[in-house]
Amino acid sequence: MKSSLSLLQKQSLGLSPQLIQSIRLLQMNIPELNQFVAQELERNPLLEYAKRRDLPRQGKSSTAPGDHRAFEEFVALPETLHDHVASQISFTAFTPHERLIANVLAGHLDDTGWLGASASELAGKLNIPPAEVERVLGILQHLDPPGIFARSLGECLEIQLRQRDRFDPAMAALTANLDVLARRDFRTLKVRCGVDDEDLFDMLQEIRALDPKPGNAFHSGAPECIVPDVWATPSPGGGWQIEPDPNTQPKVLIKHTYLKEVSRRVGKKSKEMTFLNECLQNALWLISSLDQRAKTIVKVSNEIVRQQHAFLEYGVAHLRPLNLKAVADVINMHESTVSRVTSNKYMHTPRGVFELKYFFTVAIASSEGGDAHSAEAVRHRIKAMVAEESFENVLSDDEIADRLKEDGIDLARRTVAKYREAMNVPSSIQRRREKRLWHNGNQGLRAS
Fold this sequence. Notes:
Layout: H1 17-27, H2 30-43, E1 47-49, H3 81-90, H4 96-107, H5 119-126, H6 130-140, H7 153-163, H8 169-175, H9 178-182, H10 186-193, H11 197-208, E2 230-234, E3 240-244, E4 252-254, H12 256-265, H13 271-307, H14 309-314, H15 324-331, H16 335-342, E5 346-349, E6 352-355, E7 363-364, E8 373-374, H17 375-387, H18 397-406, H19 413-422, H20 428-447
Parallel strand pairs: 2-5
Antiparallel strand pairs: 1-4, 2-3, 5-6, 7-8
Helix pairs in contact: 1-13, 3-4, 4-6, 5-6, 11-20, 13-15, 15-16, 18-19
């Protein structure tokens, strides 16, 4: 067997650790970015936050990223649901045994105020009869907010109606037939409740005034806020101006004086100098990456605003269809880069704060051969048509599709139904029943 050596030359594409970190940096939102930069400053003695004069914006905090004494830290957190319930349990005349059961029940409350376990299940864990758990549960269901400790929607509504002294046999029948109410089958409801149109109208008004998730009124967890990455403001000379907020974008500098002093005291070939050189390279990379990240976001945002300027000026009805490739081709970037930039990034506009992904919508062909329409704008039109319906004229999906076609929007009936269901808009039959009931109820109120 003969052995030999040979050289083989080939090309391969690899990602360096710093390039991978730069990609991750581009995907981060503002809170994640500030947390990452803070960790880098802890690891790297050559880095410090840039001292700059804050530029306050309307509705925004002017706290610099390096200032840990944020205003929010001085504000007391709102009372949570569990704190509210615990304080009431402590003032309720329970025996020690009952108080133990009450605290166990309170521990199984979810954020909506509903009980997340059955009485038999908790009785088994506590090794006590289920009747004892039911008795304590009945006391807890009188606590504030009304409807708390319910195990179902019907029970939640029943608790609130009992506290209002409005749980009569007709209401009992209504809460027992919530599935019929969800279908808006008012004819069946009238039969089962034994009431006429006017009485059913009054009952439904009372049901609408109840809270199906009483616990949602309380704070749960740490406060969350959306921090815009860029601001879109009208330019004095016309058009729109895009700029990052300097008070939320972290900016760091190298401590040149510190680096010079330490370099003078250590040897050029010492381990300390090697460590300083690594820190210097990491610092230069971080400064460059932060600058490149800000420029990339502004570049993508500028193109989005250029293509969606009609939305900023006139509203959602003028939102144009747009995809990632259309933006990427104009600014000479890869689609994946645009996708990373638009994920979890927000733009503040005169019409509100929007995620950059919001401006990318599916195109719907025009029936007249003109420009395509945005799916979001079409959904907005459908919702507006439904809102303008009268009692005598409720539009079916076919009629909505015909009206859209008259406006130059070619949309199939099944697509109209899909958009309508996605917006939680009932069918034409259900809307007609509801409007007829409201009409008859209002007529009865006027007559009385």
